[in-house]
Design brief:
By secondary structure, this protein is α+β, with helices and mostly antiparallel strands. It contains 3 helices and 4 strands. It has a single domain, classed as YaeB-like fold (2-Layer Sandwich), CATH 3.30.2310. The chain is 47% helix and 24% strand.
Length: 106
């Protein structure tokens, strides 16, 4: 079974911001970041249940080469990427963001 993956606008913005940050420093790094994010999204379409979930059902896919984590929910055959968060920036931002997003995405 293939799952349908969608990204919330804030997640798309986070990917764009990270891509531009890497691009300013190295176009090669930016391309590698984009390729890894696309591979992660493709992986979620294949088997999103392989990654762990927290008490609220939010799952986490940790990128291997970059310090980012995709936070997502699975509902039936739909996967919704809620955030693509840097693992070391803005403490507390993600928890507050997901609290509002999870309830409004459901």
């Amino acid at each position: 079974m293939r799952f349908r993956v969608s990204l919330l606008p804030p997640a798309e913005e986070e990917i764009g911001e990270a891509f531009h940050w890497y691009f300013e420093r190295s176009p090669f790094a930016a391309d590698a970041f984009r390729a890894e994010v696309i591979a992660a999204i493709d992986s979620l379409a294949e088997d999103p249940l392989m990654w762990p979930a927290d008490a609220e059902g939010v799952r986490y896919y940790i990128l291997r080469r970059f310090p980012y984590t995709l936070h997502y929910e699975v509902t039936g055959s739909d996967v919704t990427v809620l955030a693509v968060a840097h693992q070391r920036r803005r403490p507390g931002y993600l928890a507050a963001s997901l609290r509002g997003t999870v309830s409004s995405a459901v």
